[in-house]
Every structure is written in structure tokens, then in C-alpha cells.
């Protein structure tokens, strides 16, 4: 395996101490990590000693890395390899034997809860605009001033999540770190831990790695401070790499050989990135040699730019070659898509948001899972759609406990619900029982129709009604139980369109 590596890659693979591999673009870092993991697993095969962890930032990357390691090391080492994303590994740490699976809030769930929290607090603005504030607080271990506007919003949002029996994506890592710090959760028993795309780690992810290093894992991190683009998400970038080197006396190794680009492409990128003030010095080498071409042009607007981009690719497209166009934001691709259609060019555009990214779509799917008995929590968000306030919901829970049930109108009014709200609550509970009965008899179409009708009745905006109808349209075209249909929607299908050239 080592024969396929260059001297710098080989050094990383053979080091048995904390190591920071600074890998330029196209440096073969995945190959290096996979080879090192395979070597570590093979070296200890006789006594089944070493447990190797491999952490990446995306599910697809984790699957690919795992497959490459097992292909090189052999299937016999499978039980000693733990590969996944930060969040998937944290999720497994949080799971308790025999406990109900954790309910992770979708993007739509988060938006829906934030909209209601902002209404309760009398805040103006869009829920989408405060998500970065919530994420920043969570990335910094949930530390906030409870008296500040941001702190008040964060705590109210966390309360809403808890009342609906949910945690969100970032809670997984925060709770795992807090558990390891308090001793209620054990770190993974890694002998060695390999971390990819280290420049993108935020303080919470860094702490997760640090706790495993302090528990005895020998850590190799691979990344490129020049490729750190997530500072707005609190990514540590250069600071994180320098901190790891200093804290753990890690050996830095620069992987400067680029196997992807021609010299002209690499030189242009190098001239630009050298202007970064905080960066690790590195010499880049294009192993493919000369032969590339870089051209820069300005255009009057995005549509003219899109036409120019497609026409510039014309000679390559005429030969049937595939090409790629990158844009800074998804919106910029709209005129490009229109130009491709006008020119009759087959193209593939990465999939956009699903119905679950809309609060109404996520809420409707949650309600269907409650109806089907897949979930026992989450009813608070549904009742908030009905019009109940957080204060009214707390009063109901104080009287009934975690699970809300049908009650008489007089009892509900005595708990502080206005008569109209009490009537709506009773009507909903009656309908919920009817939907559950229909679902038990596998009358899914009738159940879906009833839930859609009820959701539409309380939709306050045209956009909400359209989102509900779109969710109904999508679910009605699928087969199986509601849980099976919704799980299908949660899976991302990002396969290229057959025959696409762009």
C-alpha cells in the first residue's frame, strides 16, 4: 500500500503520533487517510487490538472512506473500524439501550418552532434570519446571556424543542460533548482517530476531538487552512490547526503535490490565496505539468453572464464532453438553467429543498407520524398551528403531564383556555382519534385527506396553504406506511441526470 504514496503521504501514513497533514487541493488526502487506516488495522490484526475511528463531514464521504479502507484492509477488520460524520457518531453516543429513538428536528421543524417562539416573544423579522444566531450559540456550547435578546430567544427555542420531544442537529454534538465532560457518556474507545476536512471544525467539533485525544486516542487530522470557507459558521480554520499542533505537539506534514490541476490553474489559485494573512506556509506543485488555461471576464448582468458561460463551453459540449459550472449561490444558477433550456442543452442541477424544509410540510409529516404511532411526542407544535399559545400548552402539560388527552370543555376553560380555543382543542383530539382509527385499518388515503383538510383550515397564509398542498401531493404519490413515505423524503437523491453535459 505504501508504494502507491509519495514521500509526504507515506510520512503521514507511517506516523504513530499526533499528526496534522496540511493537504492542498488534489493532494490525495482521502487516499492517504484510507491507506493509514488500513495499515493501522492490519498491524493489529493478530490480536484485534486497535480500534480506528474515521470522521468526515458528510454521509457520502464517510461511506466512501469506509469502503476504501475495507477494500485495502479486508473485510475481517470491519468490527474495529468506526467511520461516520461528527453528528452520526454523536447520535450513537446519545442513544440509550431500549430507549425511544431520538427525534431530530428537520429544517422545517426548526423554522416552525422559531416562528412560533418569535411570535410569543413579540419579535419581528424572519425566522430564517435568526437561525445563524441559534447555531452560533450552540456551537459555543450553549453559552449565552439569558437576559439578552439572543439568549432569551435561544432559551425559548430550546424549551419549544423540549416540549415537542425533539433535539436539533447541533444538539447532538453539544449533548455528546457535555456527556463526555461530565462522565455520563464514554468517549469511543479509539486507539487511533483520523479526521478529514479539519479546517471546517467548529469549537464544538474541536472539543469532541480533543476529548478523544485526552482519552488516549492518537489523532491524525487532515485539512487545508486555505480551503476554510465556513468562518461564518464558526469554523476554526487556521486557528484550529495551529491550536492542535501546539496543544498536542502534533507533527505537521505538508502534502503539497496537486494531482488534479495543470500548473496554470494551480498558479492562479496560489497567487490569490497567498494574500491570506493567517495561513500555514506551503509550496504547491502541479504533478500534471503545464497545459491549463485561466480566463477572466466581466458581464453586464447575470443573464448575459450565463449566456457567455454556456457559449464558452460550446466547443467542449459539441464534442459531447461534460462540463461543470460553479456559482457562489444557488440563486445565480436560475438564469443559467434558463439558458441551458433555451439552447437545448441537457443539464443537471443539484437538488433543491424538499417539502420537509418548509415548516408546514415538516409539521404535517410530524402529525402523520403521531397518527401512525411512530412518534409519541411533537403534539405541541401541532396544537400551536391550531392557535394555542406556549402559556396555554404549559398549563395543559402541568395538568395532564407529558401526553395530552381529550378533556371536557369546562375542564379546559378552567385551565385557562378561552372557549373558542377549548372547542378547537376538543375538535382536534376527536379528529386525531378518528385518523388513528383509519390508519390502523390502513386507510392511508382517507387519513391523509383528513389531515390535509385540517391543516388547510388553520393555514394563515397562501404560502402555508401551498406548502401543505405540495406535501399532500408528494405523499399521495408514494406507497407504504406514512413512516416509509416520510423516510423516503428525508433521503437525499442527488444522482446526476443521465446524459447531462452541464
UniProtKB/TrEMBL annotation:
GO terms for molecular function: 3'-5' DNA helicase activity; ATP binding; ATP hydrolysis activity; DNA binding. InterPro entries: DExx_box_DNA_helicase_dom_sf (IPR013986), DNA_helicase_UvrD-like_C (IPR014017), DNA_helicase_UvrD/REP (IPR000212), P-loop_NTPase (IPR027417), UvrD-like_ATP-bd (IPR014016). SUPFAM superfamilies: P-loop containing nucleoside triphosphate hydrolases. Keywords: ATP-binding, DNA-binding, Helicase, Hydrolase, Isomerase, Nucleotide-binding. It catalyses: Couples ATP hydrolysis with the unwinding of duplex DNA by translocating in the 3'-5' direction; ATP + H2O = ADP + phosphate + H(+). Residues 2-262 form the UvrD-like helicase ATP-binding domain. Gene3D superfamilies: 1.10.10.160, P-loop containing nucleotide triphosphate hydrolases, PCRA, domain 4. It is an enzyme of class 5 (isomerase). ATP binds at residues 23-30. Residues 263-502 form the UvrD-like helicase C-terminal domain. Its EC number is 5.6.2.4. The keyword S-adenosyl-L-methionine does not apply. One of its GO terms (biological process) is recombinational repair. Pfam families: UvrD-helicase, UvrD_C. Belongs to the helicase family. UvrD subfamily. This is DNA 3'-5' helicase. It comes from Candidatus Burkholderia verschuerenii.
Amino acid at each position: 500500500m505504501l508504494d502507491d504514496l509519495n514521500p509526504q503521504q507515506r510520512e503521514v501514513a507511517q506516523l504513530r503520533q499526533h499528526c496534522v497533514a496540511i493537504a492542498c487541493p488534489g493532494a490525495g488526502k482521502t487516499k492517504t487517510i484510507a491507506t493509514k487506516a488500513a495499515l493501522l488495522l492490519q498491524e493489529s490484526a493478530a490480536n484485534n487490538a486497535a480500534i480506528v475511528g474515521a470522521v468526515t463531514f458528510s454521509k457520502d464521504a464517510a461511506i466512501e472512506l469506509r469502503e476504501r479502507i475495507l477494500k485495502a484492509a479486508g473485510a475481517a477488520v470491519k468490527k474495529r473500524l468506526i467511520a461516520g460524520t461528527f453528528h452520526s457518531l454523536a447520535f450513537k453516543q446519545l442513544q440509550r439501550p431500549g430507549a425511544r429513538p431520538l427525534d431530530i428536528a428537520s429544517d422545517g421543524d426548526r423554522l416552525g418552532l422559531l416562528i412560533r417562539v418569535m411570535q410569543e416573544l413579540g419579535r419581528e423579522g424572519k425566522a430564517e434570519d435568526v437561525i445563524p444566531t441559534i447555531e452560533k450559540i450552540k456551537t459555543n456550547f450553549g453559552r449565552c446571556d439569558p437576559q439578552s435578546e439572543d439568549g432569551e430567544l435561544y432559551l425559548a427555542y430550546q424549551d419549544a424543542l423540549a416540549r415537542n420531544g425533539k433535539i436539533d442537529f447541533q444538539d447532538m454534538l453539544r449533548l455528546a460533548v457535555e456527556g463526555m465532560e461530565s462522565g455520563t457518556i464514554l468517549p469511543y474507545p479509539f486507539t487511533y482517530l483520523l479526521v478529514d476536512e479539519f479546517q471546517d471544525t467548529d469549537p464544538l467539533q474541536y472539543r469532541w476531538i480533543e476529548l478523544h485525544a485526552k482519552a488516549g486516542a492518537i489523532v491524525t487530522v487532515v485539512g487545508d487552512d486555505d480551503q476554510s470557507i465556513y468562518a461564518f459558521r464558526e469554523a476554526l480554520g487556521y486557528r484550529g490547526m495551529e491550536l492542535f499542533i501546539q496543544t498536542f505537539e502534533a507533527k505537521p506534514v505538508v502534502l503539497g503535490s496537486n494531482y488534479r490541476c495543470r500548473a496554470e490553474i494551480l498558479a492562479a489559485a496560489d497567487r490569490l490565496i497567498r494574500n491570506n494573512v493567517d495561513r500555514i506556509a506551503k509550496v504547491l506543485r502541479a504533478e500534471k505539468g503545464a497545459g491549463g488555461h485561466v480566463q477572466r471576464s466581466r458581464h453586464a448582468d447575470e443573464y448575459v453572464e450565463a449566456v457567455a458561460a454556456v457559449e464558452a463551453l460550446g466547443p467542449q459540449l459539441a464534442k459531447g464532453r461534460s462540463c461543470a459550472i460553479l456559482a457562489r449561490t444557488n440563486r445565480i444558477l436560475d438564469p443559467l438553467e434558463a439558458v441551458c433550456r433555451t439552447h437545448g442543452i441537457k443539464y443537471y442541477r443539484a437538488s433543491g429543498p424538499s417539502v420537509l424544509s418548509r415548516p408546514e410540510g415538516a409539521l404535517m409529516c410530524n402529525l402523520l407520524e403521531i397518527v401512525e404511532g411512530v412518534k409519541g411526542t411533537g403534539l405541541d407544535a401541532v396544537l400551536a398551528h391550531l392557535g394555542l399559545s406556549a402559556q396555554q400548552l404549559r398549563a395543559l402539560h402541568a395538568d395532564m403531564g407529558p401526553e395530552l388527552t381529550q378533556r371536557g370543555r369546562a375542564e379546559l376553560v378552567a385551565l385557562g383556555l378561552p372557549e373558542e380555543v377549548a372547542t378547537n382543542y376538543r375538535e382536534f383530539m376527536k379528529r386525531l382519534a378518528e385518523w388513528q382509527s383509519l390508519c390502523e385499518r390502513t386507510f392511508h388515503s382517507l387519513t391523509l385527506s383528513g389531515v390535509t383538510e385540517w391543516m388547510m383550515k388553520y393555514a394563515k397564509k397562501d404560502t402555508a396553504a401551498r406548502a401543505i398542498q405540495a406535501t399532500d401531493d408528494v405523499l399521495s404519490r408514494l406507497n407504504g406506511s406514512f413512516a416509509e413515505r416520510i423516510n423516503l423524503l428525508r433521503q437525499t437523491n442527488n444522482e446526476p441526470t443521465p446524459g447531462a453535459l452541464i
